[in-house]
Amino acid sequence: MKTQAVMAAAFASTLVIANPAAAQDRSGWPESFTVGTASQGGTYFAYGSGWANYVAENLGVSGGAEITGGPMQNMALVHTGDLQFGLTTMGPARESKDGESPLAPGMKMDNVCAMFPMYETPFSVTALASSGIKSIADIPDDATIGFGPAGSTSDTYFPRMMEALGVNFERRNGSWSDLGGQLQDGLIDVVAFAAGIPIPAVSQLEVQTEVNIIGMNDAEAGKITDSFPVSEFIIPATTYQSLEEPSRVVSMWNFAMANCDMPESFVYEITKLTMEHNDKMVSIHKAARNSVPENYSKNNVLPWHPGAARWFNENGYEIDESMIKQ
């Protein structure tokens, strides 16, 4: 799968929050780092690019983001050490850790460690208002549905959810921005988004045309939460101009992760910077409102990196030693 690096160099002279370099233990720190995100037009890319630049600017280490296939590929790239950091969702993380990744069947990706909670990924459906599709039940047989990049969280789980709800469809993959364009041009019928809100591609789409953002009814939400590792989630009406009332969907948690061999002091400083300055993270993406220490307990899949665990334990968020990578 092709990737595209988006690097943003930053130097010690730009430090604005972190302690002076001389005050930090920088033993073994890399000269640069890269964060695995996902396709352009999605929340992972916006969040991950902004976070990478924020860390680089404040810790004086050159860093940036890389466009990838999303959570599954990020797990593989971080496990092998091709990337130092990445963003993942708990469902794909569990499958990858258990050796069930479709990208590398049988490979147990156990050299990936949790750093901090990001936000929940809602699974929502968008269609053009002109299509007349206002509910999942309205999706016609053999509709073409865009499920995002191949191997992404959406592509991994949303087709199964649609099948569970009795929807017959033709599958289409692509970046979120590309699929949004195809929807607007009438080349596909529906886009099944799984990304932190607001999703850039949806925000851009609704400015250009009228869309329906579709939630789930009681029966649909109940069936999906019973069958998949998700929970119910409410998209606030203020998220998109197209929503007149809150929309109920389902969601899955996301975490930032590190290769477990990254220096403890480096991961500690990154975790400290991120968790202690939520206002800066929210300025990168509104989904970061949930990137707060209290949500550390949402990780029940990945072992914690010792550097991240040290910050959480020092600040009253207890992580048992058995959950920390040794």
Automatic annotation (TrEMBL):
* Signal peptide as annotated in the record: 1-23
- Assigned keywords, A-Z: Receptor, Signal
InterPro entries this protein is in? Answer: TRAP_TAXI (IPR011852)
Q: Which Pfam families match?
A: NMT1_3
**PANTHER family attached here?**
SLL1037 PROTEIN (PTHR42941)
Q: What is this protein called?
A: TRAP transporter solute receptor, TAXI family
Name the species this protein comes from.
Marinobacter nitratireducens
